[in-house]
């Protein structure tokens, strides 16, 4: 009877994906700061659901969270017939950051025409500091310019911001970072990218109201001479750059300090002269990445503390609780005194795993944060992590965040504050995987089983 009932419920809910599954890990508070996973979609925890998503694709390489939504770009996702022509069109998928549900698909257009066809033309999707979404393509070692486009988050329409000249040194560039205001209406803007398998970085600067020019004393490129470890003499595959905010208003968006993470290195902090400011040389060995095969880094502040998030491993990581080989994790650390890497304290590794499926060598792991406040006015952070072809997850960090297994509402299995069909799906997935977390024990009998599914359905029907 129980098996029959479970089968009937699963058939009735088959059209609704179990999107609000969590990573199932209880993270211990550190220095009175807590972290909880809101939801996860990946190969390790929701394999069946993740594998059929259109953004589970090796050409969906980057993603960004902004204003309650997640944007995932995929190059040449759709085939469009126009007359006698067959055209490829790139797409941005817009998801609800609270649940992971797909909101809409944004087919990209430029000047009213389909945007696509060229190689990796939507390789970077990102957002500047004033809420402007952008798309930037990969550019080859033969390309003399790197274009960047504003993205309309409702329609998918692109608007060319600038075609940025690389100058006399041409390198392949995969991923781009922006700081300030791309429109230059409210602030200056700085744009950076890194040459793959070279020692070259590119930078362009525009004053508020001005045009872009080379960001290294008028030149768009600079050769880096200092690396860590010292045996490294150039970046590896798919390197990324991440500028960090200045400490005062005058230099807030100058991007004078930036990290480069380049496959052969852990993240290195530089200034605009190309001088190495900080690296992992004096860092506790336990905080070194388990491997440097993926690139990604970001910073945030919370409760007067400064934090860094960086890739712990690509496909050769370890689940520290079981010492079983797992993959695609990130470390969250508090920076040391003076915001140094050497004095870091590690808080958590998240998640236990996203997946271990090769993404074809994209190398990048997207991550960014948004700031908010809880119901009591305390600052909290929402962290988004995305690894191409393997998965993504959203975490909440703060003093008063509640674990997903402590719902405020009876029957709220997935911890989203509501009791609905998503909780039935979450509970069924929990039962099938043998997870016995408190949120699943809806009827309070100390067990998580089909009786709890009946209890959730009863709550839904009576609401």
Relevant terms:
single chain; 463 residues; mainly beta; 5-stranded antiparallel beta sheet; 29 strands
Layout of helices and strands:
Blueprint: H1 2-12, E1 34-42, H2 47-51, E2 62-66, E3 69-82, E4 85-96, E5 102-107, E6 109-110, E7 113-114, E8 124-127, E9 133-136, E10 145-151, E11 157-165, E12 173-180, E13 189-195, E14 200-206, E15 213-214, E16 221-223, E17 240-243, E18 257-261, E19 268-271, E20 276-278, E21 297-302, E22 305-313, E23 317-319, E24 324-326, E25 329-336, E26 340-350, E27 365-373, E28 379-387, E29 391-398, H3 421-433, H4 450-462
Parallel strand pairs: 6-11
Antiparallel strand pairs: 1-29, 2-3, 3-4, 4-5, 6-7, 8-9, 9-10, 10-11, 12-13, 13-14, 14-15, 14-16, 17-18, 18-19, 19-20, 21-22, 22-25, 23-24, 25-26, 27-28, 28-29
Helix pairs in contact: 3-4
Task: Please explain how this structure is put together.
With 463 residues, the chain is mainly beta. 9% of the residues lie in helices and 40% in strands. The chain contains four helices and 29 strands. It has helices spanning 2-12, 47-51, 421-433, 450-462; strands at 34-42, 62-66, 69-82, 85-96, 102-107, 109-110, 113-114, 124-127, 133-136, 145-151, 157-165, 173-180, 189-195, 200-206, 213-214, 221-223, 240-243, 257-261, 268-271, 276-278, 297-302, 305-313, 317-319, 324-326, 329-336, 340-350, 365-373, 379-387, 391-398. The strands form seven sheets. Strands 7-6-11-10-9-8 form a six-stranded mixed sheet, with no helix packed on it. Strands 12, 13, 14, 15 and 16 form a five-stranded antiparallel sheet that branches. A hairpin with a 5-residue loop joins strand 10 and strand 11. Helix 3 packs antiparallel against helix 4 (450-462). The longest helix has 13 residues, at 421-433. The two termini are 26 Å apart.
